[in-house]
User: What shape does this take?
Amino acid sequence: MIQTRLAMRTLRCVLMTMLLAVCAPAFAESLNGSSQHLTMRLVAESAQPRAGAPLTIAIATTPEQGWHGYWRVPGDAGFPATIDWTLPKGVTAGEPEWPVPTTLLIAGLMNYVYEAPYAPLVTLQVPAGLAAGTRLPIRLKTSYLVCSATICVPEEQALSLDLVVGDGAATQAEAFAGWRRAIPKPLDAQATYAVNADGVRIAVPIPASAEVKDAFFFPVTVGAIDYAAPQKVARVGDTLTIATKGKPSGPIEGVLRIGDGLGLAVKASPGALPAAPTTESVWTTALVALAGAVLGGLILNIMPCVFPILSLKALSLARGGASETDARREALAYTAGVVLVCLGLGAAILGLRAGGSAVGWAFQLQHPAAIVVLLLLSVAIAFNLAGLFEVPTPRFAGESGASGAFATGALAAFIATPCTGPFMGAALGAALVLPWPAAMAVFAGLGIGLALPFLAIGFVPALRRFLPKPGAWMETFRRVLSVPMFLTAIALGYVLGRQAGVEALSWALIAALSVGVVLWIGGLRQRTGRAFGWAALVALAIVFVGSGALIAKLPTPSAKTEVAGDAAFTEAKLASLRSEKRPVFVYFTADWCLTCKVNEKAAIETAGVRDAFAKNKVAVLIGDWTDGDPVMGRFIQAHNRAGVPLYLYYAPSAAEPTVLPQVLTPGLLAGLGE
Assistant: This one.
């Protein structure tokens, strides 16, 4: 039935076009005095293109009021424009990139059109070796159909543009930025579709937090769907589905409109579609994710950056002999500080993802400026624990009072962000596909888990009695606790050096020395009975802000060296290996991920595992997410993870990968491929 209806529409369209080709030009000219209803001009991004470099040309087009031009696939009526270039010797032209069209339904026929100004973009390749000043005459002849609500007219135009070879400076940067925004962006993930008795359902992977308005699928593959059939759009977690009439038999290409003038270039293949979640399944997922987040937050307390702060705060209760009421008040204040920071980080992640960014847990560590601030903060805490100075008002670690406990909890949560432990990855990954209230509950659960030890000490008197009695040993223990904080600073320095280079690390060390000098001067004042000093506080603020701003402006270093025998992850490389029926182990890591580095040294890079990989011909791909690559981020999101580590094993015959645990063992990896 659909094929018959499509054939009838095609025949009707052909007959109409033939009739219009004969009669319409004279009729339209008699009505309007001119046969040109689209104003066109060629615009070059650079008036002096550089030899050996690409040059983008825009065919800037403005329809006359009440008229419209057609997209590359016109729909049920019309025909696409033809473009014929006459170019200088050696210059080649690529395929046009068309902006996202709009829909126009007339007499039951669906048209994909442009009723407002638009600009297809074409990339020309200028040959190398041309001398500066060489003329480049660009000529274009185009034939197209332009229509109003009552009449269609075939037209032709000859356009010209004369350029000269030069330095390649962009002379139309602002205009091209606007035109490029309207060109559909390639979707990094694979879409799927399924055909049933009602038609076809196309599933497009898009994060649930990403905003989509007025979604509509424009097919490029001719005959894939019924152009005029209604399209029903629905969300299924991180997938947007389009249900319409059609019976495609092979891969589908098209453009998914996601907003006014915004779109994604989509390629869909036959495959399974996700089932629509029920209310019960959403609640089950949310509860499991919440439990995982609480457990993961609890484990974070043993990390070297959190343990000293927790220990000192716990011992302050024993030293101060706090009453039951005061102990509970401090425990609640500490918990509030932890949970609020976790909620703030969660809201930032969800907000950035809604704006299209592929960020995850510890996203701030993908920016060198944030790393240097954390490094200097760790240095300051370490010097405080070592006794170089005492924290001026407002007091926090090691001091009593609700305000101090709140600040300590906030600090503990903030400085714990580089860590992702067991249970956290799956929990936070699930949070990103849940409705936002449930997602925020999961982030709150992470904070509750992180605060649980101190909360228990505050509310269970027996636990406080179990703590060692106060004494001189506490000062010694405090000095010992400075060691893991110094180690944290060293680890952050390593991350900064790997991410931003030796120059950035050198400036960070200078800043750390400056912080140490300022804190030493402030400590000397305190030991003579004076206050730390506002001048010292201002100096610290200048060092923190100035070093972050300076390092943010430094150039990015060259690519990192890969582990011998491994290859950098790309989806194309993965697809190539899978087409060869090779078993593939893919691991996603980052320099700031402590769990990742432990797994790499304890399991992945061991001789036994490498020998087993070689014996079983397991290919290894490394996804380095240190810099927050958005393409890699979307791939990680597609596997329900909020960040790294992520370990995937692709068996030769399996359609989907096996997601391995976040804590690896040599035995687990050595068995892959057997």
Summary: Residues 52 and 128 are 4 Å apart (CA to CA). The radius of gyration is 31 Å. The chain has 18 helices and 23 strands.
